[in-house]
Batch of 3 targets.
Target 1
Amino acid sequence: MTGLAEDKLKLQLEQLIAGKPSALARTITAVENQTPEARYILKGIQPHIGNALVVGFTGPPGAGKSTLINAYVRELRNRGKTVCVLAVDPSSPISGGAILGDRIRMAEHTGDAGVFVRSLASRGHLGGLSRTAARVLDVMDASGRDVIVIETVGAGQSEVEIAGVAGTKVVVCAPGLGDDIQAIKAGILEIADVLVVNKSDMPQAENTKRQLRTMLHLRQASDWNVPVLGTVATTFEGLPELADTIDNHDEALRGADHKIDPHQRIRRVLAETLAHAIEDKLMGSSDPALIEVLNDVQSGELNFDEASQKLLEQMKLL
Ligand SMILES: Nc1nc2c(ncn2[C@@H]2O[C@H](COP(=O)(O)OP(=O)(O)O)[C@@H](O)[C@H]2O)c(=O)[nH]1
Ligand SMILES: [Mg+2]
């Protein structure tokens, strides 16, 4: 890197940490494209991560997640908080109807410098998408925004994985949709910190809330009791309560010193990065020690656990 290029990157990093929207937008694009610029900035932002409240909204399509997020953003702005919104929808390319719809819904907040909205284009496999989303969240966090909201469609394992980067997970569903309840039961109920029955202006809302509360009894007891809230995103009903509940969960998460342990996040990212580096190495290497392990597995001498253990020992990780 030339001195001039490095000066430019330093400036971009400074502007990002100062919260300048243009630096935020440019950095996110760099992260999506995995440029050298992104690698430099991702390194520089590390000391500035961990201050934002990160909340994920997930749930079946049509439950009203985008409308609810729009209302939640309005509530946060009323409270003087600055916000970033990240929409991750693997099924909708950036030019598709759903994202366009979100843009129009978010139009209420255009021109408000306290709200930054970004959609992640779906490309490549889902693991790649969730990795990109996690790095984009880090960039948003470092930009000094108070709250980061992430929207994902909750349908399968990959979305659960994406939601895993959020500190507080809100699962949104609509009343009277029996199949959705089944889908929620199958996976995303387990990850919920807050359950929302949106469209509570519709019949069946009370019934659905009751059903969800019954299902929650099957979950293992923990310090945090998952609340079931009713909202009407279109009329703002229940929004102050939802915002309070998210704040309470974030506080419970942070504990007495109001900090989220940075090592926990770094461990997770490092584990992911290392797994990929190992995969690349293993698939390409003709190192004699590796070939010996491959032969030992082929001959039945070592099982896969034993072979992994042996390689880890050679890496001095254990
Ligand atoms: N009746 C009613 N409709 C709602 C409510 N919230 C959202 N909707 C409507 O439900 C539809 C889907 O909403 P959207 O936010 O796109 O759902 P998403 O796919 O979960 O993001 C839209 O037509 C919304 O206007 C609500 O509280 N009550
Ligand atoms: Mg949506």
Target 2
Amino acid sequence: MSLQTLGYIGLRTKNLEDWSAYASRFLGMQLVDKSRGTATFRMDDRKQRLVVHESDADAPGFFGWEVADAAALDAYAANLERHKVAFARGTRALAEERKVRDLIVLHDPAGNRLEVVHGAETTTDPFKPGRSISGFRTGPLGMGHAVLQCEKIDDVLSFYQDILGFKLSDYFTKPFAAYFFHINPRHHSVAFIETGKVGIHHLMVETCFLDDVGQGYDLALKNPEMIATTFGRHCNDQVHSFYSWSPSKFMFEYGWGGRTLDVENWKPEVVTGGPSLWGHERYWLTEEQRNEAREMRIRNAENGFRIPLNVMEGNYKQARDVCPWWNATAPARKTG
Ligand SMILES: [Fe+2]
């Protein structure tokens, strides 16, 4: 009955034209349909992954979480009933709109609309990216991750863990409190940041080649004000990424090289190195928090905190030589 992946995300926006250009020509998604005030985008063999509705306000729309099949959806619904969580069965028309076989709809304590679905439709038409990228890392890891804001972490922790079945990957409390949850080997499919507000903090998609991220960064540098967080690497999910401001004024993280967790044996931990190993200057933080984050990165550097790259078959070529000093310096290295 457990959730398997983040299947799709829906948004409401005042700027459908801007979103169409941003998602396709910048992020590299494939615009498949833009009619009746809605734009839909592909990232892989799924008929749609991102759905953007024109609206009079910018707001999160919905988050589609996938279970294995009809029996798993029924079991999930029964578990919600046991916990006295209100939900509605999706209509036939809604399932068709979402391009899934069936779904239920509920809301989390922060007011986010969650849809639990099964049977997402695929197509054999090849994926044609909106700009020339290698492709998105999706499949059993899902479409990426959503990081949501909350007034207080305690408002959502128990709901997501004890009722929805998300597993805590890790967390940190400085320079801001953030909790990360997995449902598959992707380090996190959802995370919460305590900002005192609600809504989307950022969404993240991951490409298969690091060059896709670097080339996206070059595009962003043509309008430097769209960069919300500079290029850097996270300590916990180990992703190399940068963040840009989406047309809805939340951030979109564009990343490469995320780690995969051994889900069966994973034990939640506290992240001691802070949010980033290096880089990731966050323009959205207060001056004080930015300084604190920078000090943590400098400490990581002084401690020789390094993490090998997470590569996949086809996106790396092993060099023939070795790093002569890596083993020799090991005893002095700390992990944050
Ligand atoms: Fe992220």
Target 3
Amino acid sequence: MQALLKELVAIVGAGNVLTGDVVSQRRTDWMSGAPCRAGAIVRPADTAELAAVMRRCYAADQPVVTHGGLTGLVHGGEAAPDELAISLERMTAIEAIDPIGGTMTVQAGIPLQRVQEAAAHNDLAFPLDLGARGSCTIGGNIATNAGGVRVIRYGMMRQQVLGLEAVLADGSVISSMNRMLKNNAGYDLKQLFIGSEGTLGIVTRAVLRLQPRLASEKTALVACPDFDGVTGLLRHLGRELAGGLGTFEVMWRNHYALLTEESGRHTPPLPPRWPYYAIVESLGNDDTDNHARFSAALESALEAGLIEDAVLAQSDAQRQGIWDIREDIEGLIDTLAPLFTFDVSLPIPDMPGYTEALERRLLQRWPEGRVVVFGHLGDGNLHVSVGVGSHQPQVRREVERIVYGPLAELGGSVSAEHGIGLEKRDYLRLSRTPEEIALMRTLKQALDPRGLLNRHKVLAAE
Ligand SMILES: Cc1cc2nc3c(=O)[nH]c(=O)nc-3n(C[C@H](O)[C@H](O)[C@H](O)COP(=O)(O)OP(=O)(O)OC[C@H]3O[C@@H](n4cnc5c(N)ncnc54)[C@H](O)[C@@H]3O)c2cc1C
């Protein structure tokens, strides 16, 4: 590797090939905080430098792992000592904003929050939003096809990308920087890279789709008497807000109670006595209209018995107080550690049966265990957190079998939005057919025949 590193220094400069303690002092994984084990970290400044780096790596048969903000939750950024990490931390430029076409062209290492802020500064919005917004990068969002809290209104990252550029394993550059909403000239190649978790190419630039900025955003926390209330409320708000439903996030009581009364971490805006709590948001352009429409929709939901109680945030601080409960992942880790987290999707009507059976089976096996559930319910996506007092790999396997086992029969997925990485690789077959997996292997072979990009991630070695 030393000879190769010398060649890479000639491309990116000595200060941008990091080795030794500087590498191990960096973390590789948000959840565990484990140190980075890569042989070196290479930090190109732009696509041309990255392409030159990959040409050298290809010639030397050198495997690489791409690093964005390292907030991924399935160990996709893990690198072995014989691998190089390619960090996009220097590629953070906003190249252009087109307010008429509603696009922003960026380098892929830019943090999501900077894109949101730049869009707002131009009276536009970039609607992808998630708790890791300050650290995660657009390249990572593309590579994982990130979801978040606005999917019900705007779709996942895939829907926010008009074009992109990627460097392939051999250093060739695929520039597919389309800026139009419509372009049916042959295969839509960008889709190959969105959600492929860095296994088919390294995303270097992207054209993002911006949306009109809506001036009014109203947030409420509501309590539902039962799951029929939750699903009834989802339909009710979808109809009453006429396309303005921006968020529908649900916390099971076990999650809401743990992070409020039980741990004392947050003051509960509503007492934790009902089975389900939903954070719902209404988006609109006129604040008075939006407030009136949202209040009326919540009132009629109350009258119809879909909800038991509601708090409509009256200030940014109140709104933040509600979101802080939902986004307190550190709180979950602190209170349930050692903790296993899962991100699954399944048809919404099957959710109560699935979570009840899950809790029953886990508590039968570990009577002292804890299971808490929350998620982007409107998207069919649940996050399940399980604490059974052990972090041993064989215990995790046992828990995984209980969590993932029922999903195939329900037509669910072992990964709703976090991807497969290393963590879920052995369970991919529960959510994809043998033919689908064979086609994935064909694509991998075509784009990365030497298997240099994010080795062993998503697809296990045959
Ligand atoms: C507090 C918290 C909340 C979160 N909430 C959500 C949520 O609501 N919804 C959601 O979907 N996710 C969520 N996540 C997960 C995570 O933030 C997303 O997966 C995010 O998209 C990862 O971006 P990143 O830049 O940190 O990528 P990284 O963690 O650096 O990388 C993730 C994967 O993408 C690859 N990759 C990174 N950059 C590139 C690139 N330029 N080209 C090719 N491959 C690349 C990496 O090799 C790795 O396999 C959350 C994480 C945290 C810590």
